[in-house]
Amino acid sequence: MATLQLTSENFEGTVLGEGITFVDFWAAWCGPCRAFAPVFEKASEAHPEIRFGKVDTEAEQGLAMAAQISSIPTLMAFRDGILVFRQSGALPAKAFDELIAAVEALDMDDIRAQIAAEQAEAPAQA
Q: Looking at 6-99, which runs of residues are DSSP E strands?
């Protein structure tokens, strides 16, 4: 699958969908972003069952601000609409491949149960 260009119009619909979505927040002037771009693109070609999207933080400043991006590149992974990974900095290809495998292996029923438990405790702490 080709890498999607994500904007404020299609970001939410893309990441909240079923399945896995990796999002790369980047800018053209960013050296580490340019170094990570071929790694991201190669992974998108190797994993057509996964969505890969890029957000140009210069063109989509509002989206970058809403996502609280303070340094780039920032990589996010969503699975079934849940943010399961977020990290700033470029990943080497091997580390990115390992991350993809880890996200694929997640037990989403367990993660949803953990989120529900945290939400149930939140009012008690307030």
A: 20-26, 51-56, 74-79, 82-88
Catalytic: 33? yes
| Structure confidence by residue, pLDDT tens digits, 30-54 | 999 999 999 999 999 999 999 999 9
The active-site residue out of 30, 39, 55, 76 is 30
CA 57 – CA 54 distance, rounded (Å): 9
pTM given for the model: 0.92
CA 106 – CA 44 distance, rounded (Å): 19
Residues in the chain: 126
Domains of the chain: 4-125 (3.40.30.10)
Q: What is the 3-state secondary structure (H, E, C) of 48-65?
A: CCCEEEEEECCCCHHHHH
Q: Is 30 a known active-site residue?
A: yes
| Structural contact between residues 21 and 81, judged by C-beta atoms closer than 8 angstroms | no
Considering the candidates 6, 15, 33, 77, report the single residue annotated as catalytic: 33
